[in-house]
Design goal:
By secondary structure, this protein is mainly β. Helices cover 6% and strands 51% of the residues.
């Protein structure tokens, strides 16, 4: 099977749902990627939208379900394929699906402090915010005073 690798920047349409399939865990969510561009008069013009159903298997799924929620801005990379099915009326439909290899927050909108995942025999995978493995301590508020995370950035010219 040939995989089609793709990276998509977007927002979660729903909170990830973690479930068990056999011996594995999978987190599923829907991702929306909306394009827009600045017109010559300086206003924003809405472009096309892409919606993907995303599945995250194993440890990735556990981390996604524990870390992300509806509306979060993310960068997702994985393999894309088309799922074809018949709807209730018997019409042939298709949807885009992605099996994610990596998911992370879009740092255009967030400041993130990483926590390592530690496995233990009693509770499974748990976040360990104390083990930063060389990460900086806290980001000073003064370092961020000129950053406005509420606005979308200007698009990069093509």
């Amino acid at each position: 099977m040939n995989d089609t690798p793709l990276t998509v920047v977007g927002r979660l349409v729903n909170a990830p749902v973690l479930r068990r399939v056999g011996d594995a865990q999978v987190a599923n969510f829907r991702l929306a990627s909306n394009s827009r561009r600045r017109t010559p008069d300086g206003t924003w013009e809405q472009g096309n939208s892409l919606f993907l159903n995303v599945s995250c298997w194993g440890k990735l799924g556990t981390g996604v379900a524990a870390s992300l929620g509806k509306g979060d801005a993310v960068v997702v990379t994985g393999s894309v394929y088309t799922n074809e099915y018949d709807d209730r009326e018997g019409n042939r439909r298709s949807s885009f699906e992605m099996r994610a290899n990596a998911v992370g927050p879009d740092l255009t909108y967030y400041v993130v402090k990483l926590g390592r995942v530690v496995e233990n025999e009693y509770s499974g995978a748990v976040a360990n915010p104390g083990d930063q493995s060389g990460a900086d301590d806290d980001v000073a508020a003064s370092d961020l005073q000129d950053v406005d995370f509420s606005e979308e950035p200007d698009p990069v010219p093509a």
